[in-house]
Amino acid sequence: MSTPQPTATTILAAAVDRIGGTPRDGQVRMAQAVEQAMEREEHLLVQAGTGTGKSLGYLAPALARLHSHPRERIVIATATLALQAQLAHTDIPAAVAAAATVTGRSVSHAILKGRTNYACLHRVIDGAGADQGSLLAGADVAESLRSGARADAATVVGAEVVALREWAKEQLDTEASGDRDDAPTHTAAAWAQVSVPVRECLGATACPFGDVCFVEKSRETARASQLVVTNHALLAIDAMHGHTALPDHDRLIIDEAHELVSRVTGAASAELGPAQVERVARRCLGAVDDDLGVQFLELADELTGVLTTIEPDRITDPEAPVFGVLARLREVTREVAGVLAKSDDATDKQAGAAAKEILDVAERMAVLGDGDVLWLSDRERGGRWLVIAPLDVALLMRDKVFAQTPTVLTSATLKLGGEFEGVARTVGLWRSERLADGATAVGAPRKRHDEVGQESGAADAGGAGSGAPASAQAWRGLDVGSPFDYTRQGIVYVAAHLPAPSRDGIGPEALAEISELVWAAGGRTLGLFASQRNAEAAARHCRAELPSFTTLCQGDAQLPELVRRFVAEPTTSLFGTLSLWQGVDVPGDTCQLVIIDKIPFPRPDEPLMRARQQAAQQAGGKGFMTVAAHHAALLLAQGSGRLIRRVSDRGVVAVLDPRLRTARYGSFLRASMPDFWQTTDRETAIAGLRRLASEAAG
């Protein structure tokens, strides 16, 4: 009698039991839907609210699939390296061990990162320079210097480089991974001395350390594994460069999918500044003839000069002088890169690769196709830089990812304004392709990457509900809810009596409201602000008005230290900006009030967002709702989601922007937030906070 094949449900039950958890209906529904989507080769968008346990919700069906199809491979892509590490080192091993109790065998798994996340042995060993002997280990020297008030930054970086080289050699000797996450404490400047940019890598066949390269080993391990964890940026690079970054895979799961567009946009963007041109030109000077080297170096000055003549904004005039400088830079770097490519010297080859990178960026900027947005950025520390970014990444994702791999996208925030279609559109899945409940997609199965090559998978959309052809990207949306009872656990208070926010900064009325709310909550406040200036003004006001409470502000110390203090000191408040809106997980009494000072629309002078709004309008859509309101809704959903992190949490989200209640788009934004009980009555919010503070104080 044959043994029945394990299902997502049986593996999920074993995993939940192994970690001592309790069954959750939403998690079971998610696992079953993911299993079905993988079987049918459909795309699936799953909104799984905080507390659902979405990692196990997709890992269980992935493991069931790999058990029944052992020759297949599944890739999981998440937003950040930190989340990638959590999956690879905690969630997946636990799920794999639980699945093994059901299936009788274990699934192989690996983590895959970008090249710069691994030490480069060529730089570590051949590029180390003179031996820096010491009676102390490099890590001890670096730590001693960091703790000394008189140590200058260059000395600290030097000691960190020594420590990193020692560590990298130990990693080689012990056949470890050379992963930056395992390295001793260091700065970005020190890590740059022991790693190599993608363009400057000599390649496994040309590098004397190719056979023991940490990066090559990580890719070999991934190619031999059934389950591979990567990040959104590497997924984007794989899509843009002919599927050379990731191993072939049969199914794809995108976690934290609400960040996908932002991460893919970042990976597909490029920058060019005078300091960068000068630095690369100086690297090339000794390897090219004097005239060519001087031309290259002088172009840094030309770029500086032309950038001082234009305002920080989008550049659209094809006759603008900057395009002439870019054209000359393109020609000179093409000649430099050509000369250095013929050199037998590894240092020259790497310098040539750096010149080739400038060539590619200058060429892209000089051509300025319809699909790109070019602008001048004026940075407080870095000076003036040219930035180019894709106007849209929807077709890239559609043609190079979804057309080739059945994909599950999941997040706690995928329904904006109460529907999936907004997020789906931004990644290249059209409204007309959504399948109604009970409908199935028909047509031939998708081809693997190695069969498809560079062919585009985009095609005309089929009708929703009646079954779409395989060339269309049939997809479903599923909201499995949350184990939290938001209407009983939280209140959204909209301060409708306050004046609308001003561009001049946070007003006195809003500051008074903040201190009153923080007083009522007894501290215990996470303040999410539209700008650092507003956060700092609110922190100063609360420190003056509420001296018995501690108010921390982003910038007072390193963010992890501020969050640690916020968690450890229940009556302490923490104010900050965008980095606090997502990813801060503070359950319990320490966070009973979340203050949002302003609807987080993109800045009206932000060139890329403005260009996307204009493009949406030209296409017949509503630019503001398609882009600005979508952006704000996503952040509001994430920010207000900081309040309730477990079933016992209770509290208030206070939005000090009356437009959330009074503007026509307010209902769309409110529908994107957790389903809290809503009020505009200030006294109701104050009374609720006072009651919670009294209970917490005990």
From TrEMBL:
Catalytic activity: ATP + H2O = ADP + phosphate + H(+)
Cofactor: [4Fe-4S] cluster
Pfam assignment, any one: Helicase_C_2
Domain of life: Bacteria
Residue span(s) of domain Helicase ATP-binding: 13-317
EC number of this enzyme: 5.6.2.3
SMART domains xrefs: DEXDc (SM00487), HELICc2 (SM00491)
Coiled-coil ranges from the UniProt annotation: none
GO molecular function terms attached to this record: helicase activity
Keywords in alphabetical order: ATP-binding, Helicase, Hydrolase, Nucleotide-binding
EC class: isomerase
Region entry Disordered, spans: 440-470
Family: Belongs to the helicase family. DinG subfamily.
Protein name, UniProt field: DNA 5'-3' helicase
